[in-house]
């Protein structure tokens, strides 16, 4: 039996080892964290728009579960397909290094967006917003809501993706300013980006800190869950909520006053920018060195800047959603 | 000797009680300990939260108990739950006027269809439950992804009446708790006081005997998975209403929590054994662990290990109690 | 004419893929009689019952109940017609209560609400049990009952369905003498209230004690029906086996040699204590007593299945320890377990693999199996024990009970044995195979092997044993030479001080 | 050779010891069906993607699924027992995390690798000892508990951090090629597969595994050390999980407590599709090997033409059920 199989395999290989290597140009792949994430669906939309503007073919890959293992396999498949560029939102900054380096060694341009990979495994990172700005603006927001004093807590995701931890660090730095002396950050809780976990973590926060005045949830799942809990308990005006959320999910809580406003960047633009950056790399308009610049379609001129040990392209400041503009945005994403 | 050991084994009925009592004892000790560390634990508000958050788990556990009694297992319930939740909430987003009861009914129906397919595979085509449900888990989850197109159904797309299913209350008690109490009463009656209910035990205790004594084993097995599916479907609606969000990866892996609760509750994987009262204490312990650990500031990273250890201890201790009370530990198999 | 029969089966044929399990079988049951059904294993008795109870449907033939032609399509049909069966392996629900076992499927329910009325059921169950002379609590779990008690529950179940015809499939096979006696009384009681009974058994004493008429099946065919008093034992055996058997207990002349094994104060908590005996070459030591007296457990400890707690074993005058099966096998102790299918064989395996399983060392080289050696060994041994099989690649499950037994014996022959332990070697075995087994035993003893034979069958103990040990409640209550032994003495020792 | 016990017995019946070749039985073997599926998948894949059918792709693709395939080898033994081990995914995570943490704490890499394997062995041993000592607990329950427990310990150790920074040579396991063509993992797996094949089909150890899976009581009575063998097999399963952890960790370059989640189900699916019955005693290594490559290449091929992962999910699920269904219809079902 074994012989037969080996024989078959060899035969199959011989059969078409000559197999065509039809080279097509202009294949751009987008690998996201997992399927079923509406934020990423919007990123995809922007990415596909950009790619169709430059006349290429966009490939979208989303693993069923948000794991690095699945992303590695997808990268290998993309390498086999000989795509020209891979844009990835990573489930782990470090673990994709070998796979992405292999891709780069085969001449594929690699960039990350949203959730970055380490500088040595990418050429450039497309950053939705400056982490410093994101961190600081959320503290400023919550301070304004609670009137400058009281206890606040952070409801984060798993914080495995580098983002949240970075933002929380900036939040803590912002809090060191003297004007926030009366604000106390009592706890950073982790909802693991799971609905049920985020709900029970929010409830535990409310119970453990009866005097809690505000919650910052720098994650879309967490903020929606917290909004739901605060609404259900009718804590409008007593506990304020802000953070990063999807307009569609947060529309209800912004309008009922639980969260007077919150922030997010525009995922469509993020995808769009990533699409143009990929095109720039493929066309060798840019190489990912600091100081280069390129035109990103409707977004205009963008510059590659130094960030840590690597380089990145900045989308812009986070956008503020409040009762006045939420209705026009909730249908978009 | 037979006489001697059978006297010993006379107390076998009592073992179940001892087990339940020791479980309840453990729950009480745990509660006192937690209360000591965080005085908010034993407040009405927190107990309400605790029960509300455990309600869905408890409903699923009833179905899983029946499946396990027939020597089966159902790994697909998380996927069924997601499918029903997604379909129902998509429906609600299109027809906001849909009556909540209708939504519950539709969700249950979707679950029933899913469950009866599994029932058919297991009962009619003799596919082992673990395989059939593993396969269908993939299929249901995939279908959910496809139907939703990867999109979520969010709070604003759901009507208030739909969301009120799980936020509203009757006589000051949260609807979810009311629904799960209702389900426990119905199934307590069903399992203990109807012929069909008893046949479930018969099939699990000895499928061979059941067959020769004219019990339609195929039908009962099918029924059990269909009920499990229906309850998962119902839970899907409750889940989506509770979290006001339907995602395609909802409740992924939740089946293991449900099985764990059943195991703590003394439902024997070998079949034929298990009581609603035991199940209830298992579910309660599980719910308390979930609720109390964050409250006493146990690092979230310790929670997994603690849960695993508790389950392991629960099953080992119950095995030891069984031995001590003299049940035969011969290697012979029953059946 | 046929209307005097309550149940009549005409020309019943049942085919399974590849085999005819019943070939044109006829059977008539008179109202109120006890009718024995006999035949060797594999003669078709079990299939025959399953046809009557609707588990199987016949391919050909007709069934008449009270003269009316009927069809029985599933077990519920037969139940509705008043037919109940008590199967060989109790068909009970071990996790459930006695009451539930009795009433499963026909629980007493409130006519309006359909609610099960547990109180009424427990009462009714207690009443049924009382009628049968049993006094245990119907709330008890089935698994806590003894085999005999479980059988009573099965009978109570039959009564509760108001069955007019009760089929008993080898009900005495796992019962002791006294328990069997109790069962006879119950059966007669049933007969008195007008129940017709089909009684299947290997034991002639059952038949003589109870039955009015006897029907014999052989090789799936109907051989004949006789009045019990009209037919001689010898003719009946001939009808069953198809040939004459001259001597059931072939005891050959032999010399009992020197001591090979001695056991002193062997104990295992909860099972047996202070067991001491000696065993000599060429001797057949019969160990008897009631079921549950600790005989099987003793043998299991001697064979290393379950470790004993204290005591000393001497083997060929050397002190040895038997902790594992391997220890026992290395010493040269072989064990023929009681339940061949469960403990002796792997039914889904070919004969060669079955035979070699306990001698893997002999057919392997540093762990690598030598298939050629294995096949040769299997062929040689299968031929030695005269297994009726075409090739060593036949599956064990394809063999008849007697031939399966022979394969278990062949497994023993793979090692160089000195002591052979046989646990109930003839349980569930038909006459033909029985005599073959006794023949082998005698042969072995004559060659100097020491044999420990556990048996509940009095004729067997007296017929084959050289020395007899009687156990009760885990202790040895009597030891006697066969010359000085008789049934009364053994029984007295087995039941000493009980009741 | 004839021992003295046999001498007394002589009959004259002849029994055949030569196997009769039955063409129908031969071709009705499950493995043929698998082979058919295997070929069909390659034909389908090469129709779908122009990049599929060439030596590089076919060899490269094996890098995407062979890590868990190591566990499938030993899981085959476990399932032949009629048991199951669902803690393997957690064992992978635990051994990988401990290895990384110790390496970062200054242990040399070779030592860390040895520790990784030891952790796997220990985890498997604990499963085994619990299953052997508490016969009333089924393996499902024991390994369900340890599944939660082992991953829990991994979380305690590393919380939500990642650990990595392994030396460059460690990358070689997951990413290296021999002669720039054949992936290291494929060679390692082939060696392991041959060893497991021989172990199961040619040695007394394998024979005993089948015996226990068919009838543990009869095995015990035949002198098979049931407990010892079970313990060895569960320990071996832990060891193979640790081996898979090495390759997976090498592939990712770093590790964290949530890796390899859901591996147990993938592995079980591979084994079951290979024709190993979860009721025990049945199945062959060759079927499992075929099934590993069927599932692996199916996934890879569909991914190559960018079929959404959720559709792949459905296809794998359906394949599992349909193949078991077909086998039930073809060979009847034992459970009756």
From TrEMBL, chain A:
It holds the Pfam family Peripla_BP_4. Keywords: Signal. Residues 29-282 form the Periplasmic binding protein domain. GO terms for cellular component: outer membrane-bounded periplasmic space. GO terms for molecular function: carbohydrate binding. This is Rhamnose transport system substrate-binding protein. It is found in: Cell envelope. Gene3D superfamilies: 3.40.50.2300. Residues 1-23 form the signal peptide. It comes from the Bacteria. One of its GO terms (biological process) is rhamnose transmembrane transport.
Automatic annotation (TrEMBL), chain B:
InterPro entries: ABC_transp_permease. The keyword Transmembrane applies. One of its GO terms (molecular function) is transmembrane transporter activity. The chain crosses the membrane at residues 21-38, 50-68, 75-95, 101-123, 130-150, 170-191, 220-240, 252-271, 278-296, 302-321. It is a multi-pass membrane protein. Keywords: Cell membrane, Membrane, Transmembrane, Transmembrane helix. It is found in: Cell membrane. The keyword Transmembrane helix applies. Its main location: membrane. One of its GO terms (cellular component) is plasma membrane. Pfam families: BPD_transp_2 (PF02653). Signal peptide: none annotated. This is Monosaccharide ABC transporter membrane protein (CUT2 family).
TrEMBL record, chain C:
GO terms for cellular component: plasma membrane. InterPro entries: AAA+_ATPase, ABC_carbohydrate_import_ATPase, ABC_transporter-like_ATP-bd, ABC_transporter-like_CS, P-loop_NTPase. SMART domains: AAA. Its main location: membrane. Keywords: ATP-binding, Cell membrane, Membrane, Nucleotide-binding, Repeat, Sugar transport, Translocase, Transport. It is found in: Cell membrane. It is a peripheral membrane protein. Residues 7-244, 255-498 form the ABC transporter domain. Transmembrane segments: none annotated. GO terms for molecular function: ATP binding; ATP hydrolysis activity. The keyword rRNA processing does not apply. The keyword Ubl conjugation does not apply. PANTHER family: CARBOHYDRATE TRANSPORT ATP-BINDING PROTEIN MG119-RELATED, D-ALLOSE IMPORT ATP-BINDING PROTEIN ALSA-RELATED. This is Monosaccharide ABC transporter ATP-binding protein (CUT2 family). It comes from Halanaerobium saccharolyticum.
From TrEMBL, chain D:
Its main location: membrane. It comes from Halanaerobium saccharolyticum. The keyword Repeat does not apply. InterPro entries: ABC_transp_permease (IPR001851). One of its GO terms (molecular function) is transmembrane transporter activity. Keywords: Cell inner membrane, Cell membrane, Membrane, Transmembrane, Transmembrane helix, Transport. This is Autoinducer 2 import system permease protein LsrD. The lineage of its organism: Bacteria, Bacillati, Bacillota, Clostridia, Halanaerobiales. One of its GO terms (cellular component) is plasma membrane. The chain crosses the membrane at residues 21-43, 63-81, 111-132, 139-158, 178-200, 229-248, 260-278, 285-305, 311-331. It is found in: Cell membrane. It is a multi-pass membrane protein. The keyword Iron-sulfur does not apply.
